[in-house]
């Protein structure tokens, strides 16, 4: 997984904190551990992640936040940065090209709009009218 510098820095701070808490940190251990009474010390499950993100969303007044939102955002951002769609699909682990197509459409639209404004010699800060 590719991470920006600020995300790598945050991850390193988290790993340092884990070490300070006495947790073993190594490449063959889960990155995020469960603290649930019945699964303490095990890899945090999908349901645990879903629950945690849902709760964070509630606290931040984003009631519809769920883990898949991050996958949608990451997929779209890769394409808006003109990352090759084949590579972006691999990075986001989408198995189906058809399922990934929804993201490429937005990227293509954004690229077309930017190309238009470049062609007419203007900045592409205009909002799309719907």
From TrEMBL:
<dbReference type="GO" id="GO:0015074">
    <property type="term" value="P:DNA integration"/>
</dbReference>
<feature type="domain" description="Tyr recombinase">
    <location>
        <begin position="1"/>
        <end position="130"/>
    </location>
</feature>
<dbReference type="InterPro" id="IPR002104">
    <property type="entry name" value="Integrase_catalytic"/>
</dbReference>
<dbReference type="Pfam" id="PF00589">
    <property type="entry name" value="Phage_integrase"/>
</dbReference>
<dbReference type="GO" id="GO:0006310">
    <property type="term" value="P:DNA recombination"/>
</dbReference>
<dbReference type="InterPro" id="IPR011010">
    <property type="entry name" value="DNA_brk_join_enz"/>
</dbReference>
<dbReference type="InterPro" id="IPR013762">
    <property type="entry name" value="Integrase-like_cat_sf"/>
</dbReference>
<keyword id="KW-0233">DNA recombination</keyword>
<protein>
    <recommendedName>
        <fullName>Tyr recombinase domain-containing protein</fullName>
    </recommendedName>
</protein>
<dbReference type="GO" id="GO:0003677">
    <property type="term" value="F:DNA binding"/>
</dbReference>
